[in-house]
Amino acid sequence: MDAPNNGFMLVGSLEELRAKGPLVVQGGHGPILIVYDRGRVFALDNRCPHMGFPLERGTVEDGILTCHWHHARFDLQSGCKFDLWADDVPSCAVEVRNGDVWVATTSGHSDPAAHWRQRLMDGLAHDLGLVIAKGVHGELAAGVPVTAIVRQVALFGAQNRDGWGVGLTILTALANLLPVLQEDDTYLALFHGARRVAADCAGEAPRRERAPLDSRPEPAALKRWLRLWTNVRHREAAERTLLTAIATGVSPAVLSDALLSAGTERAFADTGHSLDFINKAFECLDLVGWEHASVLLPTIVAQMVAARGAEESTAWRQPVDLVALCDESASQMRQLFSGGRCSHGWSEHAALARELLGDDPAKIIDALKAAIRAGAAPADLGQSLAYGAARRCASRASAMPTSTPTGRRRTTFSPMPTRSNRCSGGSGTRASTATSRPCAPSRTGPWRFTLSVILTCHRPASRVKVTISSTTSPPMRRRSAPRCSMPSTGSDRSILRQGWWHAILRSAIRPRR
Question: Which of 137, 180, 216, 223 qualifies as a cystine partner to 258, CB 3.0-4.6 A?
């Protein structure tokens, strides 16, 4: 075998190759398989693209190369796979010069980024975990930005399932963590998010697109209409109204205000999932770009208009009418915030979280009011509530909830959105309609979501105490409650976050299929 000549190397004569059969030579990127078949010479990467088995141990028949490990089959001339779960075999250029066979020393795809983008789409479309993993890895290796990968997966999920699903929520939540993850964990986060989106879309009918109205009404009118269609559960009308608002070119803040107002027409709708999906759709658009709002935002409308409110549930009416309690407190919200100290140094999050885990709804409302008077902002209430919910979940790891007058609750808790600046109006006022009630998200959210913690798992959490190592995360355990506390101001939270998510991405997150 001669040395490479202008990127080609001599592998032998045509007669020798015809007599000896398949030949393997070492190329610039790995072993190359040389095959003579029906008067032509072909050169392919010798490693099966499925799982790396040597293709020289396979067979060639009628122009089809078959790998004998998993029986992946390839077109000998182009290297293209017949089986979607495999991949294309990179081919090398071949030249026959005066009876000698010269083969290019390198192989690969002319546009690696485009190739792996298509492979990721194939994996998502057919719910093939290995292909998804290769597609994500290939795009990262080709230098594709992580935001572009998130955008590709998110748009696939929005277009290939009729409605927002858990997969898109997981994808968005993991994408929010990408800035604090290391390189290996970034790949795992993207893979797990894409895998869950594919599982959500598997076997589902693609989304049917709807068009905006021909007119361009004022944003205030569109907001009123969206609340109206939500109240009467008219999905098509709500989607067209939302698409019209997007086509009008209103700002993300106006869109957020309209959707959050409509999404809170019912108290704690769909046990919080409706509002949670709305918030995650906002976060997803922050990641992938608001120019995709017409694709992503309509996916949350179906669940929003069909959601069942807590006011329709007996558990929220007996033995204490929690809806009336929330509405009464909401009417005082503006006055409470205007009369508060507006202190940016309020830091009693852990103390308030303990109060929120009590048994008496009236005392919980009083604790929230006291915190507002002491200077707590809406974001502080959300942080305390999320921390209290995490403690309650930790307490559930050691024992099931006990029976209470409201019954045993097993539903999951969905904390209220912390992006309090989404709505354009800070006062929480809303446009008046014939069916309007004082229940804007910034006014009723703290009360409804706090009381949902009680109903979600009604059990005192006094036994729960927590300490988390600042460097590593203990493995998740089912039968004993973890020990953790609010990190101190001076602690290294970046190390804590990296260690915690490193452990979760490798153990706690599992694809459903």
Answer: 223
